[in-house]
Amino acid sequence: MANEDNDICIKCWVYGMVQGVGFRYTTQAQAKTLGLTGYARNLDDGSVEVLACGAQQQVDTLLAWLKAGGPRSARVDKVLTEPHQPAELPRSFTTR
After folding, report:
1. From residue 90, how far is each of 16, 18, 20, 78 by CA, in Å?
2. Which of 27, 77, 87, 96 sits 20 to 30 Å CA-CA off 38?
3. Where are the domains of the chain?
């Protein structure tokens, strides 16, 4: 499926104190405000994986927010990113 309106997707791995502090839900709210789709989910190693799809500028805004530390209750040590092309674009932004 081709991306609509030149939308992009990135996958991020956020490390630090990011589980059990409302990180996924705050990220979801931030992404929805920006009109993005994707997900935020906890990983077994204590990090959070974020998939963000949408307009380049909005994806960049979410990425900058994540790198700046996300919600006040969290502590972000590092954020790794890579471009991602899902087989099917997500319809909404979910937490898993």
Report:
1. 26, 23, 25, 25
2. 77
3. 4-84
- Are 13 and 49 spatial neighbours (Cβ–Cβ below 8 Å)? yes
pLDDT score at 2: 43
- What pLDDT was estimated at residue 6? 72
Active site (annotated) includes residue 42: yes
The active-site residue, picked from 24, 41, 72, 91, is 24
**Given 3, 6, 41, 42, which residue is catalytic?**
42
CATH fit for domain 4-84, picks 3.90.1010.10, 3.30.70.100, 3.40.630.30, 3.40.50.360: 3.30.70.100
**Active site annotation includes 6:** no
